[in-house]
Every structure is written in C-alpha cells, then in structure tokens.
Amino acid sequence: MIYFNVAGLAPFNQAIQQEITSTLEDFGRLLYSDKGIHFYRETLQRCRQHLAQFLQVEDAQRIAFVPNATTASALVLSRIHWESGDSVLTTTHENSTVLKEISTLQSKGVQIETLEPSSPAELESAIEQRLRTTQIRAILISHVSHIDGRIFPIERLSQLTQKYRTLLIIDGAQAAGHIPVSFQDWQPDAYFFPGHKWCAGPMGTGALILGAQFTEHDERKNSKHPSWSHFELGTQNIGLLSGFAKACLIKQEDGMMIARLEHIRKEVRQELSKIPQLRMLEWDGPQSPGILSFTSPQKETNGQLASPSQDIAWKTFPLPNTPDQTGNRLSWSSDTSDPEIESLLVFFRNQH
Predict the structure, then answer these.
(1) Domain 2-10+256-349: what homologous superfamily?
(2) Which CATH code fits 14-254?
(3) For the chain, which residues make up each domain, given as ranges?
C-alpha cells in the first residue's frame, strides 16, 4: 500500500526503535533500585532537554510529557478557573477530539464561539472584534489546520491576546516537525503536539509547552515543584519518550526539508488542477508544504478515487459546516519516495 497520510500517522525509523529498545533494556536491569530511580529521572530530564533544544524553549522545565494532543488539551482546559459567562473562541478547523473537550466547558456556563476563517486578515479582525466586545477567557486554535494545511497567524494572535489579557492555547499537532516551530521570540500560554505525526515518533507520546499563565504562580511561590509536575500524570514510559526525543533530534538534524515538501505539493497540485470536477481547499493565506486537500461536487468522487489497480490511501473527512460533503486530504513527508509520488501523479493523470 502507498500511504499518504503523514498528517495522521507516520512510521518511525530504525534508529528510533533502537532508542526505545535500548532505554527499556537498560531500565529493566535496574527497575526501582536507587540506580533505577536515578536512571528514570535522568532519562526524563534528558528527553526534556532534547525537546527544548528542538523547539528553542529557554526553560526545559516548562515542557510536560503527555500521551497525545487530546489529553494535553483536556489538562490545559481543566487548569483554567472558568466562570459562568466566560467564552472560549475557536474555529471550524479544529480536531474533533479537541472540540469535544471544549464542549465540556458548557456545563460550567462557558460560551463557545466558533469562527470560519477565510484569510489571515479576516481571522485577525474577527478575533479582535470579539476580544473587544466579548468576555473571551481563552482562544484555542490550531497552528496548522488538519483539514487543509492552512497556517494560522498565531504570532500575531499572541500579540492580540496579550493586549486583551486572554489566554492563547495552540494545538500544534500539524505543525511541530512539519514547519519550523520556535519559542525563542514568543510563547503562547500553552502549546501541545503529539509525537506520532510529523515528528515521526512513537504513538503514546507528546509534549505540552507551558507559558506564563501556568508557571508564574509556581515561580511567585518559589515552589520546589517544576512546572511540568502539575501536568504529567503518573509514571512515564521512558522508552517511548526516549524514542520521541530521538525523533525530534533527527528532525532537528535533518531539517524539515521544506523545499522538497513544497516541490511535491506543487507537482500534485498541478495534476489535480487538471481535473475539472475537483476544487482545492485552500485559503487566502500561507499553506503548509506537506498537506493538500480537495473536494468534488460529484459524490462518487469524494473519498473513492482509489482504484483496484492503485492501492493508495489518504484521509477523507466531512467539510466544516457542510458535513454532507467530503474532503480529501493528501499529505507526505520528506521521506516519501519519488516512486510513491510518481504513482500518485500517474493515478491523477488517469483521472482526466
């Protein structure tokens, strides 16, 4: 099978598997002896340092390990002191599991406002208008849309939320490991992402980067407990986390290879544009290099482009606000081979 769904799951290479195995073997010989406890703590700290280096986070103690992005969003939302009348602002491009976590806030009297973004300028304007007129307690928004790869202007939104004293929570599931992500010059109140998508790490891993809202209280109290300790739930699988950290180091060393991703996107888009019934799903703003989505008014085309002779898989999804229509998301990584891309291009050429 040719699998074009890196935006949902990516296989990890042998070096990552070896890192997982060797870490667990070393720990297995020690377990919870004094040396074992030291090994466990040192391994977690090393992994935290590697992620801080990858993301240019100044203080590694602001990084908490989580099993996935959904858990991270639930943890962050649960740590906010919500009051009846508060509102949370989000968009139609958020992952369904994150939207489900947001919806639980309604039981606390929190209002949910959802925007349909069409361009960066329009989105910024709509958000600022609501910040001026509504009691927005937090904005939860993706860095990169999982639907069509549009890149949201989160640094500009960070400036707006600071101005209006609103929390900014970023779902980086489609960004980290896909496009450059650095916290050297800015920092949201929370930013989370899983390890198994664009970082190409193991499932069951992820990171939550904590901003000032979730760390200043501890600093004022001179707490001996690091910031991450309030978000990490129980004992961690240091084998998987070592693999996660290794995956991030590989990404850092190899780079995002954005030029190759953009070249692939350009080729695929050119072929898709030749099929009259297809419509690209894009906005009037920057698009990520590894995702291209499209739809068609013909129901028999949506989600059924694969033929028996071409075993090609990609992601299909209901379109925002029009669930009766289906979109198709293609995504690839820098490891996607030229023969695989050529097979995809040939397949589309046979469609027109």
Answers:
(1) Aspartate Aminotransferase, domain 1 (3.90.1150.10)
(2) 3.40.640.10
(3) 2-10+256-349, 14-254
User: Per-residue pLDDT for the chain (352 aa), expressed as one digit of tens each?
Assistant: 788 888 998 888 899 999 999 999 999 999 989 999 999 999 999 999 999 999 999 999 999 999 999 999 999 999 999 999 999 999 999 999 999 999 999 999 999 999 999 999 999 999 999 999 999 999 999 999 999 999 999 999 999 999 999 999 999 999 999 999 999 888 899 999 999 999 999 999 999 999 988 876 555 555 677 889 889 989 999 999 999 999 999 999 988 899 999 999 999 999 999 998 899 999 999 999 999 999 986 554 434 454 444 567 888 889 987 878 889 999 999 889 999 999 999 988 888 7
> For residues 149 and 146, what is the distance between their CA atoms, to the nearest angstrom?
6
User: Global pTM?
Assistant: 0.94
